[in-house]
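Technical annex, item 7. During the second reporting period the consortium partners agreed on a shared format for inverse folding records so that results from different sites could be compared directly. Each record opens with the tokenized structure and is followed by the designed sequence. A conforming record, contributed by the partner at site C, is shown below for reference.
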């Protein structure tokens, strides 16, 4: 029970860091250097700094809501009307233009090896075992096929 409590505490600390980051920057960290980005957050008690080394960098997968609105297509001449476009942006998107809105974080279980049956998965702050998610437990989504214990 002590190992499970420790792993849950790490998961909750990382989830809190993601929440703080999203409040501050209006997006989740980029997957390439997310640990360094979370390390820049205020951490008065040192809990984030203590939890980050316990997490595998490959376990983080942010997701973005991307939608396109299809309108009626014009049969006019291509390029007949060229409009001026502003190259400066005032929105809160990341420099690449993508704002991450949800995430999935895989955390190693008692054996400290990522990709085994005892791993934990955190989806937007909801923590459960990988085996429960893969078997259709709470939190199962269409993308759960990638979580094979």
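Designed sequence (site C submission):
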């Amino acid at each position: 029970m002590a190992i499970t409590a420790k792993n849950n505490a790490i998961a909750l600390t990382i989830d809190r860091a993601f929440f703080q980051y999203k409040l501050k920057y209006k997006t989740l960290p980029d997957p390439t250097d997310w640990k360094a980005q979370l390390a820049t957050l205020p951490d008065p008690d040192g809990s984030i700094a203590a939890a980050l080394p316990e997490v595998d960098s490959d376990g983080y997968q942010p997701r973005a809501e991307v939608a396109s609105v299809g309108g009626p297509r014009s049969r006019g001449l291509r390029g007949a009307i060229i409009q001026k476009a502003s190259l400066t942006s005032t929105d809160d998107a990341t420099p690449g233009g993508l704002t991450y809105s949800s995430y999935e974080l895989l955390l190693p279980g008692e054996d400290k090896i990522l990709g085994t049956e005892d791993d934990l998965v955190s989806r937007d702050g909801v923590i459960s075992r990988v085996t429960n998610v893969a078997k259709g437990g709470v939190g199962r989504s269409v993308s759960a096929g990638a979580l094979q214990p």
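The chain is about 25% helix and 10% strand. Residues 88-95, 137-149 have pLDDT under 50 and may be disordered. All partners now use this format for quarterly exchanges.
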